[in-house]
Amino acid sequence: MSEYQNRAVRIQRELFPLEAHEMKRQMLKSALQLFSSLGGSHKDAVALAQGIPSPEHQVGSEVGLLMFELARISHANDIDVMQAAYNVLDAAVADGA
Fold first, then answer.
1. Model confidence at 28, in pLDDT bands (50, 70, 90)?
2. Cα→Cα distances 93→34, 36, 67, Å
3. Are the C-beta atoms of 89 and 7 separated by less than 8 Å?
4. Buried-most residue among 6, 19, 34, 56 (CB within 10 A)?
């Protein structure tokens, strides 16, 4: 994972520098797109968002929980999660070049 993370950070810095607020926005957009591709509705997304309490956890804990869910989703859909991630990085480099 650290190899992927280092590569992703390098590509982001070189090709797509983001401010903190834009990084948060992009994270939410990606999560909502995944939710939608799994069959989630706009109505369900709004209901879930309204039920989220104020932040209690550390970012590290939330990243861990997200990775746990991604592993489960990937397995259920017969997807190698890291290969999918590398494919996105390769596409980003090709598009940014």
1. very high
2. 22, 26, 23
3. yes
4. 34
User: What is the pTM (predicted TM-score) of this model?
Assistant: 0.77
Q: Which residue has the tokens 């990085």?
A: 89
3-state secondary structure 20-56: HHHHHHHHHHHHHHHHHHCCCCHHHHHHHHHCCCCCC
**63/77 Cα distance (integer angstroms):** 21
Query: In whole angstroms, what separates CA 79 from the centre of its chain?
Result: 15
Indicate the Cα dihedral angle 23, 31, 66, 53, nearest 10°.
80
Q: Which residues contact 73 (CB under 8 A, 6 or more apart)?
A: 34, 38, 79
Q: Give the 3-state secondary structure of residue 3.
A: helix
d(CA 45, CA 36): 9
Question: In this structure, what DSSP letter does residue 1 have?
Answer: -
Give the amino acid at 33.
Answer: Q
